[in-house]
Amino acid sequence: MPEAAVLSLVTPAYNQGQYLAETIESVLAQDQLGIDYLVLDDGSSDSTLQVLQDYTDRVAWEHQPNMGQVRTLNKGWGRANGKYLAYLSSDDILYPGAVRKLVEVLEADPTIACVFPDCDLIDEESRVIKRSVCRPFNLDQLVVDQECYIAVGAIFRRSAFEAVGGWKPELRLAPDREFWMRLASQGSIHFHRESLAGYRMHPKSISYKDVSEETSREYIRVLDDYFAQPGVPPRIAARKEEAYGKATLVLARNRFRSGDLKRGFALYAEACRLHPPLRSATVKLRLLRNVVSKPARVALSAVRSVLKPARA
């Protein structure tokens, strides 16, 4: 039987061929011994397969019919034998020494269930757009405020993963944050303040497609499941209505972004009923930006298409 790895790292790859080689190289450059690395090509139609073929002698990889990110990650983690587990998106990168430094944190304190580093935003050319964009983990912010600052490079104990289970395939928008809610029951989630990863921003990394209200309602369903479980911290249980109000505000924001103003205002009214402080001018201004943002994007796109020089 092969010796267990220190870390089992999975990269789900889907149509990010232009960035995948840099992602893989960032893993191969790590100075931590015992990394079990698996790349799962989730039915890509771009150059992903060709990129992976160049790494056949150095990286374990597999091509599969499209399953979606969640099922692909669960598949990879299901094969893992590492003491610790992690994932790295196929367009993000780890900085040198990242794995070693994060594993050292976990090795030093068995009460830590997960450690994640600070990270930088990078562009298509890997130039830093903004440094140090993460913040310490706060369960109250995650559950109540709908804010998650765990980004690239999080590593968690396999034992904690097995205790709570993998990501939920029925979730499309928030499978990661729902997982962190469950994982927090297994120990602390530690923020390592050094930037050790790059989170890539590019056109494909941002979805401009309309998100249906039904899809957005998974934020409500996540709260339903969370508050239905035993052992919810009293301080969070006391803010249940606030949590539902802010989740409903997310639904309202998505309706505004989709151009459905009538439904957006109705959901905003419901959010305010659940949590009256959401009537503040600051919240209204943020929603207003969502109302005007989509038409502005459409207009800008039209202008760019007119001004763009024709190719020879």
Summarize the structure.
With 312 residues, the protein is of the alpha/beta class. Helix content is 44%, strand content 18%.
How would you sum up this structure, described in words?
- The chain has 13 helices and 9 strands.
- The chain has helices at 17-28, 48-53, 69-78, 98-108, 139-143, 158-164, 175-183, 213-216, 218-228, 234-237, 240-257, 261-274, 281-307, and strands at 7-13, 35-42, 60-64, 84-87, 93-94, 112-122, 128-130, 155-157, 188-200.
- Strands 1, 2, 3, 4, 5, 6, 7, 8 and 9 form a 9-stranded mixed β-sheet that branches.
- Strand 2, helix 2 (48-53) and strand 3 (60-64) form a beta-alpha-beta unit.
- The radius of gyration is 21 Å and the shape is globular.
- The N and C termini lie far apart (60 Å).
Layout of helices and strands:
Blueprint: E1 7-13, H1 17-28, E2 35-42, H2 48-53, E3 60-64, H3 69-78, E4 84-87, E5 93-94, H4 98-108, E6 112-122, E7 128-130, H5 139-143, E8 155-157, H6 158-164, H7 175-183, E9 188-200, H8 213-216, H9 218-228, H10 234-237, H11 240-257, H12 261-274, H13 281-307
Parallel strand pairs: 1-2, 1-4, 2-3, 6-9
Antiparallel strand pairs: 4-8, 5-9, 6-7, 6-8
Number of helices: 13
Instruction: Report the mean per-residue pLDDT as an integer.
Output: 91
Please trace the helix and strand order, writing H or E for each element.
EHEHEHEEHEEHEHHEHHHHHH
Inertia-based shape: globular
Radius of gyration equals: 21 Å
Write down the CATH topology of the largest domain. Spore Coat Polysaccharide Biosynthesis Protein SpsA, Chain A
The largest sheet is: 9 strands, mixed
CATH class of the largest domain: Alpha Beta
Q: Beta-strand percentage?
A: 15-25%
CATH superfamily of the largest domain: Spore Coat Polysaccharide Biosynthesis Protein SpsA, Chain A
- Give the end-to-end Cα distance, rounded to a whole number of Å: 60 Å
Please identify the structural class as seen in this structure. alpha/beta
Low-confidence stretches: 300-306, 308-312
Number of strands: 9
Count up the domains: 2
- Helical content stands at 40-55%
From the coordinates shown, what is the CATH architecture of the largest domain? Alpha-Beta Complex
Pfam families: Glycos_transf_2 (PF00535)
Keywords: Transferase
Domain Glycosyltransferase 2-like: 8-164
GO molecular function, one term: hexosyltransferase activity
